[in-house]
Amino acid sequence: MLGATIFTVISVYLARKGGKHRKRSFKPENGIESSGMAIAAGSVIDGIPESIAIGLTMLAGGIVSLATLVAIFLSNIPEGLSSSVGMKNQGWKPHKIFGLWLGIAIITSISSFVGYTVFGQLPVQITAFTLAVAAGVILAMLVDTMIPEAFSQTHNLAGMVTVVAFAISFLLSKI
Q: pTM here?
């Protein structure tokens, strides 16, 4: 609940600051462009807990599962592309867009390192709490961002595509 609350509060704040359409990869009917910067901010919001979770996963088994890496990689591609297109449409230069995403990659990499090194020294209860908060953030982001976008683009197929994606994720986790 704490992770979902954190994500929701920041999401509402970004929407009120002009990023209402930050979750859309297309131009809304009212003609307002999506906010590329708000999508990038959202990537940091959910990227840090994801990365900490990766670090914690490495603590548990020494290696991050293929399913985890594929899921994170695939979920971040649409956000990155959508954000970059939005920034380009707003006049950002390619090197500034690349620099921003490089910075986000560095921040999330540091978060993964912190998850692995710092959390290895902490009591298991703190690690469990951190994973629960990260799961809340990630779940809230998924429902808030990806499901409405998927439904708006695929309509009646969104449910089937979601189930297929979860099935693939499950199969990858068993490899």
A: 0.63
